[in-house]
Amino acid sequence: MTRRVVVFGLGGTIAMTADAGGGVVPALSAEQLVTAVPGLAETGITVDVVDFRRVPGASLSFEDIYDLGSAIEQKLSEGADGVVITQGTDTIEETAYLLDLAHERNEPVVVTGAMRNPTLAGADGPANVLAAIQTAASEVARGLGVVVAFADEIHAAARVRKTHTTSGYTFQSANGGPLGYVVEGMPRIVNRPATRVTVPAVSAPKPVEVAVIPMLLGDNGTALEAVADRVDGLVVAAFGVGHVPAAVVEVLRGLAERMPVVLASRTGAGSTLERTYAFPGSESDMLGRGLIPAGFLDQLKARILLRHLLSTGHDTAGIGDVFRRAGV
């Protein structure tokens, strides 16, 4: 049976060519990207193309991704077997997770891009697109939600991070490793997450703002106070397992009385703790003052989840319940 995959192009390095000044800008259409992929015709996969956006990854918005989610839902409802998204790598770890939160169907949605633009020797875009299409067309990828396919590795949207500015192997999953690999054109899944949390999107999400504030040596809360009246929710990227300086404890307590405040770790791997340390500013102290533990979600994923929950009308108690399920 012929499999049909829809490719949505959003721009990014994978779609860039040189301008008159010698720099590269998004210019290639999604169709041009797909046409340039060696070996695609031999797979027997039917590929439809949607030129959805042509912008750098850094300029994508929540509205862009919510619109994309609706367009993906329509294509899957019309019978597509899977979806591929090509975009700039700057925000893949965030856009993939936002899409994953609202994707309740079994069909695979695969996000990919490139670290080396098409004007460079060894451009990785064609290989990544081919692997993404093969993954999206595969039965073994069903039920995994949204994944990132890059350098022949398949990563869960909730785990993956961009870890290097230029390396072709920049996407890594520190907590648990990749879900699988593309081997000889076939996805092989070797690691399935025990849980996956979805939160349906709404037709008219509320406009909200969520900030991420890292804790720093000698922090006295100035940055926290600067954003306090301008956001609807806050993620604190704390030291280690969830520690903050004693000088910011009362500031955070006051903020947690006004809005949901999530306690994440700035380390990028491992879970926040809940009951190991007990000094002022420790994880147990801050959770006792009303902060919400992020668990294994890093600060960027925590922001995506918190903003999505606020925009879909969840209150602080409901937000805490979802984080406890999503952060395991």
UniProtKB/TrEMBL annotation:
The keyword Thylakoid does not apply. GO terms for biological process: asparagine metabolic process. PROSITE patterns: ASN_GLN_ASE_3. It comes from Kibdelosporangium aridum. One of its GO terms (molecular function) is asparaginase activity. This is L-asparaginase. Pfam families: Asparaginase, Asparaginase_C. Coiled coil: none annotated. Keywords: Hydrolase. SMART domains: Asparaginase.
